[in-house]
Amino acid sequence: MLSDYFIDRPRMAIVIAIVISLAGLLALSRIPVAQLPDIVPPEVQVSAVYPGASASVLEATVAQPIESRVVGVDKMIYMKSSSGADGSYNLDVSFALGTDPDINTVNVNNRVQTAMASLPPEVQLQGLTVQKRTSSVLQFITLYSEGGKLDPLTITNYAIINVLDELSRISGVGQALLFGRENYSMRIWFDTARLTSLGLGPSDVIRAVQAQSVQAPIGRLGARPIPEDQQFQLNLQTQGRLTTPEQFGAIVIRANPDGSVLQVKDVARIELGAQNQDTFSRLNGDPSVTIGIYLSPGANALTVSKAVNATLEKLRDRFPEGLQARVVHDSTVFVRDTISAVIKALIEAFVLVGIVVFLFLGNLRATIIPIIAIPVSLVGSFAVLLMLGYSANSVSICRLAPMPSQYQRL
């Protein structure tokens, strides 16, 4: 039998056991760790914004041109889209399991670019976002203000500038998504009665704002060709995009024949506020914003979770007064508990195996052999899992340790 070969050659068996253990230890440092097996197809998400448009308008002007180009992309399984009444459009394209997410993103982006010319100018101005996406949620982090010292707009602005980029740069983080973001924007509230009495419409104000709030190159004075006595060259600078409510209020809508001018502040109220106020979130009654951390395909959940928590601790030192961060959901907690339970069960199994073998055989050498063989076989199993492309999850870990219940029955 095959076992007789190793019994007669113990040194060979020891060398093979050492090689298996080393391979398993190397695999443990590289194998992806997750709560569940990776059975969800990779996705690519296409996002667009059409300000002021209804869901039916989005479906007709944005969804149809994009989906007619994307359908049939290589390795695609199916796709689904949603058009919101807030002017947002999302298309999720699912691909076959095991395909390269980066290649899928490139293929979808190439198809989307062919539809750009068919989209409304407002959508082209906002731009389209094409990014790979995984449904594997690692954590939900909430930034909140104790006692309501900071409003959601301030928290959102701080998170975008100081927190979101730091989390996105962590290795293994596929996407750091800020839910319900309220970007700073100049809000112009029209006095419709005043506009009607002057024979104007909102489009007239919009055209005036677009024409007078621009970042334009002015040029240079004294550039070549120049006369011999020219000694200086000056780069001209002028005010670019407007930034304050007063500057927007001074925009001229039209000039009257009598020399008077009609400005935006005469027909509207201007204030600096949130671009979109459709969504908001609270934590225990305090204003908050939530950041979702999604894993990249094949990432180690435990390693990424530790890196995210370490980054969050570093960022806490720079938080303004009244701002706090809290991890409200962490999928690795269950993974850690599962690993701890498996390790505890294995230790109990080693002890039971040693006791049972020693009581029945009464030989110390015969007792040491199974105690050594069990961890060698378990650690070596991770090398096989990594070679086959599997991850260490709650299903595979439990399958690797069926012995505790058997020896407990003994």
Automatic annotation (TrEMBL):
InterPro entries per UniProt: AcrB_DN_DC_subdom, Acrflvin-R
Lineage: Bacteria, Pseudomonadati, Pseudomonadota, Alphaproteobacteria, Hyphomicrobiales
Transmembrane segments: 12-31, 341-361, 368-390
GO cellular component terms, semicolon-separated: plasma membrane
Protein name from the UniProt record: Hydrophobe/amphiphile efflux-1 family RND transporter
SUPFAM superfamilies for this protein: Multidrug efflux transporter AcrB pore domain, PN1, PN2, PC1 and PC2 subdomains, Multidrug efflux transporter AcrB TolC docking domain, DN and DC subdomains, Multidrug efflux transporter AcrB transmembrane domain
Keyword presence, Signal: no
Single annotated GO MF: xenobiotic transmembrane transporter activity
The organism of origin for this protein: Nitrobacter vulgaris
Keyword terms, alphabetized: Membrane, Transmembrane, Transmembrane helix
UniProt cross-references to Gene3D superfamilies, sorted A to Z: Multidrug efflux transporter AcrB pore domain (3.30.70.1430), Multidrug efflux transporter AcrB pore domain like (3.30.70.1320), Multidrug efflux transporter AcrB TolC docking domain, DN and DC subdomains (3.30.2090.10), Multidrug efflux transporter AcrB transmembrane domain (1.20.1640.10)
